[in-house]
Design a protein that fits this description.
Distance between the termini: 48 Å
Helix content: 25-40%
Largest sheet: 5 strands, parallel
Number of helices: 8
Oligomer: single chain
């Protein structure tokens, strides 16, 4: 289905003069533990090690009696299974990267089939440890990444050093300049405390990216959407969920919105009702002021 969607989009837009670069799936990540992926992991291990003896030797499984006697005994590391065989954990991470890169190549090939002249990129996430980004480099025409330094939350020098190092890592993936795919001109909306940048800080942060090899400074989001504000309110209400059937939301002590929400058997609120009610009432304001609940 993903390939079909990619191909249809390419057929529709590949020859548009405004399309100069394909951005493949957003921020690749995640792991799958379904039976198909478990078997794919075993097949990947068979191809790498050939025999169980070689796998056991490489993983040093005779320590603490972890020796495998059948390929079917091997499962992805997870809390309700095996987490203490370091070789297993490392190879699982390598496999997840292999699977993700394979999926990305499928998406790339789908759009390249329609117009091979348009380059492709995927936005990476700095030091995200779920994937080996250096395996992505050979399959991408351009590396891009999303940078959201949390200025003013601690020493700005330390934050700047970390951001600079990450820019350098992104450039080293292909040993070429990269794109800053996402940054924010104001503040993020997904951290516990979101602080506005002080005057001049946004320009400084943007020029830092350019100085370290970025050919762009792009934004997500340039303007905040109404839907996103409603979701932010829902997240706020989630924190007071056990306290009653009504959430009274006050903004600057003037605007008040009463949202009724039900509780399930565990005492958790259906926060979807709150965000839905907000959208129906056309609420579009920012939400970081004060929230209280009626008992």
């Amino acid at each position: 289905k993903t390939r079909e969607m990619d191909k249809r989009l390419a057929k529709r837009f590949a020859n548009h003069p405004g399309v100069i670069l394909w951005h493949l799936s957003n921020e690749y990540g995640g792991e799958c533990y379904c039976p198909l992926c478990q078997q794919a992991f075993r097949d990947w291990l068979k191809k790498k090690y050939k025999t169980l003896d070689d796998l056991n030797h490489a993983w040093w499984t005779d320590f603490w009696s972890h020796t495998y006697t059948s390929w079917d005994q091997i499962h992805a590391p997870q809390p309700n299974g095996e987490m203490n065989v370091h070789g297993l954990t490392l190879d699982w991470k390598r496999f997840v990267t292999y699977q993700t890169v394979d999926f990305m190549k499928m998406e790339r090939d789908a759009v390249k089939e329609v117009n091979p002249d348009i380059p492709v990129t995927a936005n990476l996430m700095g030091f995200y440890d779920g994937l080996d980004y250096f395996k992505f480099g050979p399959e991408l025409d351009v590396v891009s990444w999303d940078n959201y330094p949390q200025w003013h939350t601690t020493d700005n020098v330390e934050i700047a050093v970390s951001s600079a190092m990450t820019h350098d890592v992104m450039r080293s993936i292909k040993h070429e300049n990269f794109l800053l795919m996402e940054s924010t001109p104001s503040m993020t909306n997904w951290t516990p405390i979101s602080m506005l940048k002080r005057p001049g800080m946004h320009l400084l942060s943007s020029m830092q990216a350019v100085a370290h090899g970025s050919n762009s400074v792009q934004y997500f989001q340039f303007r905040k959407s109404r839907e996103q504000n409603a979701v932010e309110l829902a997240r706020t209400v989630r924190k007071i969920e056990p306290h009653g059937h009504f959430a009274y939301l006050l903004f600057d002590d003037e605007l008040r919105f009463d949202a009724e929400y039900g509780l399930d058997g565990a005492g958790h609120a259906d926060v979807g009702d709150v965000s839905g009610a907000l959208r129906q009432n056309g609420f579009i304001g920012r939400l970081h002021v004060r929230v209280r609940a009626e008992h």
